[in-house]
Structure formats: C-alpha cells, structure tokens
Specification:
The protein has 305 residues and is α/β, with parallel strands linked by helices. 18% of the residues lie in helices and 24% in strands. Strands 2, 3, 4, 5, 9, 10, 12, 13, 14 and 15 form a ten-stranded mixed β-sheet that branches. A two-stranded antiparallel ribbon has the order 1-16. It starts with a helix and ends in a 6-residue tail after the last helix. The relative contact order is 0.18.
C-alpha cells in the first residue's frame, strides 16, 4: 500500500508483506497514555526518549516526582517510563541526569519551576507506583532505573555481587567489573511479547548496566526476556570482567496485579541510536494494555477484521 511505503520511508521503519496470514494468538493493541519521567534541571536520557517519542509521533506528558508521590496515577497514565538515571536509590549505572536530585532551598527556584523539584524515592514514590501497576498500569524502567524492580517487589536481585568483608553480598568493584559504553552479545526470548520481533541472538548497548538474578516467588512470576550466556560477550568496545555477566538477565517483565512491570537493564534507547533494541521499548509501551485475541488466520480474512 502506498501509505505504508511512504510512512516506512519517512520514519525509517522496515515494513514487510507476508505471503500468508499469521497463525496462533495475537495481541490487540490500544492507544496508551504515556508519562515520561524527568527531573528538575533536565535528564539527558529523558530528553533523548522525548525526542524519540516525538519522532515516532507518540503523544506523551512529562512527569515529575511530585506527581508520582501524589498518587492517583492510573487516572492520567497507562504507561510510566523511567529513563536511565531517573531512579537512583537502587544500585545502578551512571545517572545520566544533568540536574539530578535538587538539594538546595526550594525558595531559590523560580515559583513556576518548583513543581519539578524532588526525586523518585522508595518511601514516597514506590507505594503509589505499586498501586498504579496493580490497577492496570505499566512501569517501564530503562538502564540504571531498572533497579526499581526490586523495590517494587519483583523477584530479582543484583547478579553482579560477591561476598564482602562482612560476608554479605556487595556489588563488584570496578577493578573486577568495568564495562562502560560497550556492545555485548545477548540471548533473547522472542516468544515473550516484550521481545517480539527480536532474533534469538542479538546485541545490546551496555553502560555499567544492572544485571539481574531470579529469586523464587509465589506471588510474582517474572519472564526471562534477555540474558547473557557464555564468557566471551564483547562485540564492540572493551570490558573488564565480562565473564561475570554469564547467566545474568538484562531484561525481564512480570504481571503484577492487573498491570505489568517491565525492566530493561540494557540502554535500549541510548541517545536515540540503538535501533536494534527499540522494539523492546516500543513493545513495552503497548504490551501491558494489550489483550489476547485469536489471530486473523483463525478468525477470518483480513477484510473481515
């Protein structure tokens, strides 16, 4: 169709025609109300995602920590996106935010900007976020912000740890693990809706990113979406201690109440450049609100839909 060809060319999207209709179950998507987290002073990762959403014509609204803390989030949003660095209380990579948490006197900030002050915290922000997800919303956390998963009750822990002097787990020091801004090999599970469209073998941009271990939980079942397998994972760049990544997960998702929690530890949207992992981000936006339906091959012809 000419309209598809024109749109694909203008947006840089690869579009392919199918010789036959797809079989099996499908997901019916619906428009979603997107809230994009930002902080006072400006978050660089949030700015790049804002640019991406604008380029691909997704309507969205910037959300600051005070809005999160106030609650009643499901009345305004279906998806809340946490760019890398906008949640900093968990163990994570580099913040990436230019402004970061504001520690000065609020009265020193012009009144029209004071609603932007604050930071996302475990005590004030996580409880309303849990309610949001339980009521059917999706929290989509990227990069270092994906450490919010453990605070929200997802059965994951830090994979990159060793016993400290007191015998308790502590995150690996830079001398043992240091991988800033490199491309690594990963395994994907394309049968999971979050990884629809991905190949089983692929690449991710890794920047001191969080890597997860799975723990047992009868309350929340998380899905394995992307993980490291093997000791030789470096594709481009340089890495110290890459063998420590073996067996760790870099992306996972879980049903929580009526909603969904999506953790993309990889830098899936880094500066709007890694197109190979954009699918994970876009799938994450729609997945939580999608409903399962029979495929067109099972329920009639395309003209019937």
């Amino acid at each position: 169709m000419p309209i598809v060809a024109t749109a694909a060319k203008e947006k840089g999207i690869a579009a392919y025609g199918l010789a036959q209709k797809p079989a099996g179950e499908a997901l019916k998507l619906k428009p979603v109300r997107i809230g994009l987290i930002d902080v006072y002073g400006g978050s660089m990762p949030s700015g790049w995602i804002r640019w991406m959403l604008e380029q691909y014509e997704f309507p969205f609204e910037l959300v600051f920590p005070q809005v999160i803390d106030a609650g009643n989030l499901k009345s305004s949003y279906d998806v809340i996106v946490f760019p890398s660095g906008t949640y900093t209380e968990g163990r994570g990579g580099r913040g990436g935010g230019r402004g970061g948490p504001f520690g000065g006197a609020p009265e020193s900030v012009p009144e029209e900007y004071r609603s932007m002050l604050g930071s996302v915290t475990v005590t004030k922000s996580v409880p309303p976020l849990k309610t949001f997800v339980e009521e059917g919303g999706t929290v989509l956390a990227i990069g270092s912000s994906a450490t919010i998963g453990e605070a929200m009750g997802l059965p994951v822990t830090d994979h990159l740890v060793e016993a400290g002097p007191d015998g308790k787990p502590q995150h690996l020091a830079n001398e043992k693990l240091y991988i800033p801004g490199s491309v690594l090999r990963v395994k994907f599970n394309p049968k999971d809706p979050l990884a629809y469209g991905m190949n089983e073998d692929g690449y991710v941009f890794f920047d001191d990113s969080p890597v997860f271990d799975r723990t047992e939980s009868s309350a929340v079942q998380a899905s394995k979406v992307a993980w490291f397998e093997g000791k030789d994972l470096l594709y481009s760049g340089w890495a110290i201690g890459q063998d420590r990544l073996d067996g760790g997960e870099i992306a996972t998702e879980a049903k929580v109440g009526a909603g969904r929690l999506v953790l993309l530890g990889l830098e899936a949207t880094f500066r709007g450049t890694p197109h190979g992992t954009f699918k994970l981000f876009f799938n994450g936006l729609y997945f939580g609100s999608a409903t399962s339906v029979p495929s067109v091959a099972q329920s009639g012809t395309a003209s019937d839909q």
